[in-house]
Design goal:
Length: about 270
């Protein structure tokens, strides 16, 4: 087998740790490996988490987050950044400031609650997400619960997704990806920059093991951007990757299992 000599594109995740390995930085790094980029991480919080939920969460000090970020970006460099769990207003504002000074596309997953309904963002941090973090985003990827938290819009149909996208774009990201997976029927997402609309549809798989879908999708988009793809192409590829990962999701523990980040390399049959 030939030895790789070229350096792969580098993608940085700024997010929390999921001790169960299904979401958070663990999901991000698995996704990045699967999609051919070099994943790096800035840890913002540690969670005690398994298939049943989040049993505890501890945010890291601002100085630790800033030091990790500067250590990676100043020496290694990045071609894209993805943010996930930022926990508190002070961490949101710190990370937003760091991102504003970084010349790379940014995918913001405005994580508010876990798959089990556990809060992962302090309520007082929502305004910082709106006014500090979303304005530096190339793509923002809220699900419908996060749309409601950030905008007050309760989405029940595709017209509601359009309204939600308008509200999210008003905060300043270049693109909004409204994830409609919580709606009945096929899994539909809306990507728009306020002018062009891209509706992404996929069959809904009858599989409850979907832990980590949001983290995985955002990381897949960041990986595509680092590989030089434009936003619609990166999002379309990420949607296909996540759909396959959901289809292959597996039971783990006594609750909701993770999507399968390595589904493309598994032997079937």
């Amino acid at each position: 087998m030939p030895i790789r000599t070229a350096v792969p594109p580098r993608v940085l995740t700024v997010a929390g740790s999921d001790s169960g390995g299904g979401a958070g930085i663990q999901a991000d790094l698995k996704t990045m490996l699967a999609l051919g980029v070099h994943g790096m991480s800035v840890l913002t919080a540690v969670t005690a988490q398994n298939s049943l939920g989040v049993q505890g969460a501890w945010e890291l000090p601002v100085d630790a987050v800033r030091a990790q970020y500067r250590s990676v970006v100043d020496d290694i460099g990045v071609q894209a950044v993805k943010t996930g769990m930022l926990a508190s207003a002070v961490l949101v504002e710190t990370v937003a400031e760091l991102l504003a000074g970084t010349d790379a596309p940014v995918v913001v997953d405005p994580v508010g609650v876990s798959k089990h309904g556990d809060a992962l963002l302090a309520a007082e941090a929502l305004d910082s997400v709106r006014t500090k973090l979303l304005p530096v985003a190339t793509v923002a990827t809220p699900n419908l619960d996060e749309v409601a938290q950030l905008t007050g819009v309760q989405v029940t149909d595709e017209d509601g997704m359009r309204r939600a996208a308008e509200e999210i774009l008003a905060f300043g990201p270049r693109w909004a990806l409204i994830k409609g997976g919580h709606l009945p029927g096929e899994a539909v997402d809306l990507l728009t920059d306020g002018s062009a609309e891209h509706w992404l549809r996929a069959p809904r798989h009858d599989n409850r093991h979907t832990h980590g879908t949001g983290c995985t999708l955002a990381s897949a988009i960041a990986s595509g951007l680092a590989l030089g793809q434009d936003v619609p192409t990166a999002v379309e590829g990420a949607k296909a990757y996540v759909t396959g990962a959901i289809r292959a999701g597996f039971a783990l523990g006594g609750g909701i299992g993770p999507v399968d980040h390595g589904w493309r390399t598994r032997q079937v049959g």
